[in-house]
Fold:
Amino acid sequence: MLFSYFQIITFFLLGQSFFGRLCLMRVLIAIPACNEEKSLPRVISEIKKEFKEGDILVVDDGSTDETAELAKKAGAFVLSLPFNLGIAGAREAGFLYALENGYDLVVQMDADGQHDPKYIRSLTEPVVKNEVDAVIGSRFLNSKFNHQTSRSRYLGISLLSFILTILTSKKITDPTSGFSAYNKRVIKFLALNYPSDYPEPEIPLLLNRGGFRFKEIPIEVRQRQAGKSSISYKHALYYLGKVLLGILITCIRKIRNPKREIRNNI
Structure:
């Protein structure tokens, strides 16, 4: 026989495991970046150490420093946007790239070093095993991590968590997390329906409206390795108002169906 029974059984069992399934999937780690030359090389290096099964894409969102060049030198693919589109535009570009290049799973993470690549495996495992369609990393799901944030931010996050928990009928603890993983069905869906401004709080609502299975897992974030947050404290109220408006629009706007779009293009 070409294969022994032992080889066949081993191959079958391996195919049912997380690692076996992961080896059969094309995984893209998408990192939006704007002027992150100081932190990005280390982030890419850490990803390669912690998760060797995926391709790394840096979406250069109109950087004026050496972000794109250093990303290429570190071994990442680089998608350079013609001008700064903001976090939503950069993340959407990552989903479109994944869709057009046939990836089965996308991990979204930040370029500033706050997202620890050691959690990529934990984020992807429930998706790879088909337990859910999407996984979102939460800083507040495990009280042992003791994430520190300002009082104003904590109150804003608590308000958004309360609203989204009611709207989705699912417990949402971290509506501003940008560390997440999505399967191919969600990639297609978000490529067509991605929010246009501050995307993270609207994602759980979009997933719920699309009928997708999703859950949070606990993660611990680190201090930024360099640079500063794009959302300053003095703009916290403005940010909250924009997010609440975005949630309202997401509740009532028409959702584009990937199956219908694809069928119409054939």
Residues 262-266 have pLDDT under 50 and may be disordered. The two ends are 44 Å apart (CA to CA). Strands lie at 27-33, 54-60, 77-80, 105-108, 134-138, 180-183, 214-218. The first helix runs from residue 5 to 16.
